[in-house]
Design a protein that fits this description.
Layout: H1 2-22, E1 56-61, H2 67-74, E2 80-86, H3 90-102, E3 109-111, H4 118-123, E4 129-132, H5 136-148, E5 152-155, H6 163-176, E6 180-182, H7 190-200, E7 207-215, H8 229-236, H9 244-253, E8 262-269, H10 274-283, E9 296-302, E10 307-313, E11 325-328, E12 331-334, E13 340-343, H11 367-376, H12 380-392, H13 398-412, H14 420-427, H15 429-438, E14 444-445
Parallel strand pairs: 1-2, 1-4, 2-3, 4-5, 5-6, 7-10
Antiparallel strand pairs: 7-11, 8-9, 8-14, 9-10, 11-12, 12-13
Helix pairs in contact: 5-6, 6-14, 8-10, 12-13
The structure holds nicotinamide-adenine-dinucleotide (NAD).
């Protein structure tokens, strides 16, 4: 009898150990990357506010396909001055001056001709903000140099590609007390802003799962990137190297580092089929080492038990999609391929919302009710800027709303909509998905980039001047 008891106890304890290992509370098999200690004498920039700027004086670096439109948008934003323009290519700088001339503004100082002409722009003492729209490898070095020279920085997506770059941006922003914002324009599209507002009013209940993606067949664009930088990067780097368009809006819905944080990720990709063919077409070389798969998927889990799925595919013919889909305990929203909402009937206040008989828990609300809800929950940013944004444009207006908000917050001494920790969380998917893929899709722990402050702010909110 004693022997049987010992045996039972052993089986029981083995069972406890193995149950412990398979429980979703343990991360014993996940790969952990280093979280460097915050350097002494340095504080977090969570909620950073800087002295109000009456006029935001801007220098632009990188005037290829993306940069010149940003310059044009700034000519429509009150309280700004375009001080300097920089690109390696002289003609790109000269051509961009036309937007200032058209707006009857003085021409900007010009920097061009060498790989590091941009340094002189950063060294000027009459610039507050350096706006960077170059190829990816230049983003972080330029941003670091600009912050070291007393400038706020706004960096195109993705701002950084390695953990070293990400921590360097965080540490430099914390030490210099300068804003370091990634220009994630997809957080400002009309449907996203309105849906975020609905989410903040509780219409979807507890949001448990969000999907986002960058599915954009770049077939028409590959030949136009300066010196083929983008295809070259795809050749060299495996993983989701362009996750921020899908992830940014997802993280805002889930209050990431405002009460929750991404804890673990797992990635899987297809083999690279289209990349080598593109290389043959544009570089005329047969290669067998193209790294980036045609399709990459990354799943994440948060501290509070929420999940995120992000897809990346810039290779195969598919309709453009950033997905933007959320599942909550009371409702659902989806942007691509069609914008739709679904709610449990009790999720909506039926006194305010007519046509409530249209509601059931199995199909989306009618087009009419969707329109009414979108009008009722129109985000204050959209309410204020919609007309102007549609006129000025930039992906239909979202780029204008992003730039306008950046200037508004700088002029009013408010925390920016997106801080350096957002940048870090959205950019780290590139190096960490690569790590997961290279280890047979192993789970990888996502560092807490706030170094202990992810739960300090309760809920994501845009800042406004108090009336
Ligand atoms: N948010 C969006 O919707 C969106 C859309 C398109 C591109 N982007 C991003 O914008 C950035 C630029 O993309 P693009 O399509 O304009 O590429 P591009 O190749 O057309 O332009 C890059 C420009 O940077 C310049 N450049 C490179 N090195 C430089 C240096 N050392 N000094 C000064 N200028 C330098 C090049 O001459 C070129 O004009 C990328 O980060 C890209 O991911 C974002």
């Amino acid at each position: 009898m004693k022997k049987i008891n010992v045996l039972l106890a052993t089986i029981l304890s083995l069972c406890v150990v193995s149950c412990g290992l398979s429980s979703n509370k343990t991360n014993s098999r996940a790969i952990e990357v280093e979280t460097p200690l915050r350097p002494a004498g340095q504080e977090s920039v969570l909620g950073l506010v800087t002295p109000k700027l009456e006029t935001v004086r801007v220098g632009f670096i990188g005037l290829g396909m993306r940069g010149p439109d940003a310059v044009k948008r700034f000519t429509y934003i009150p309280g700004t001055k375009v001080v300097a323009l920089c690109d390696i290519e002289k003609d790109r700088v000269e051509n961009t001056q036309k937007y200032l001339v058209e707006a009857q503004l003085p021409k900007a100082a010009e920097y061009y001709g060498t790989e590091d002409a941009w340094k002189a722009l950063c060294e000027r003492d009459d610039i507050d903000l350096v706006y960077i729209a170059t190829d990816w490898k230049n983003h972080t070095p330029m941003a670091l140099y600009a912050m070291e020279h007393g400038k706020h920085v706004a960096i195109e997506v993705p701002a950084a590609h390695t953990m070293e770059e990400i921590w360097a941006l965080i540490n430099t922003s914390e030490r210099t007390r300068k804003h370091c914002m990634m220009l994630e324009n997809c957080c400002y599209d009309f449907f996203e802003l309105t849906t975020l507002n609905m989410a903040q009013h509780g219409l979807f209940g507890d949001i448990l799962h969000v999907e986002g993606s960058y599915i954009h067949n770049l077939e028409d664009f590959w030949p136009y990137y300066h010196n083929n930088w983008r295809l070259d990067f795809n050749r060299k780097v495996r993983g989701d190297i362009y996750a921020t368009h899908g992830l940014g809006p997802a993280c805002q819905l889930l209050d990431i580092h405002r009460g929750d944080r991404i804890k673990t990720l797992v990635s899987m990709d297809t083999k690279a089929v289209t990349g080598p063919k593109l290389w043959k077409k544009y570089v005329n070389e047969d290669i067998d080492d193209f790294q980036n798969g045609d399709m990459t998927m990354t799943m994440m889990r948060t501290e509070n038990g929420k999940t995120i799925l992000i897809d990346h595919n810039v290779m195969t013919p598919r309709p453009y999609s950033r997905m933007y889909q959320l599942s909550g305990t009371k409702g659902f929203a989806n942007k691509y391929p069609i914008e739709q909402y679904l709610f449990r009937p009790e999720a909506l206040n039926t006194d305010e919302v007519p046509n409530h008989e249209d509601l059931n828990a199995h199909r989306p609300v009618s087009e009419e009710l969707k329109k009414e809800l979108m009008e009722q929950y129109k985000d204050p940013i959209v309410k204020e800027l919609e007309q102007m944004a549609k006129k000025v444009g930039g992906h239909g207006g979202m780029d204008f709303m992003m730039d306008y908000r950046l200037v508004y917050c700088l002029r009013n001494g408010l925390p920016l909509d997106m801080d350096v920790y957002d940048l870090a969380e959205w950019c780290c998917i590139a190096p960490l998905s690569k790590l997961s893929l290279e280890n047979g899709s192993a789970p990888v722990m996502v560092p807490d980039f706030t170094r202990g402050e992810w739960n300090k702010i309760k809920g994501y909110r845009h800042a406004f001047v108090e009336e």
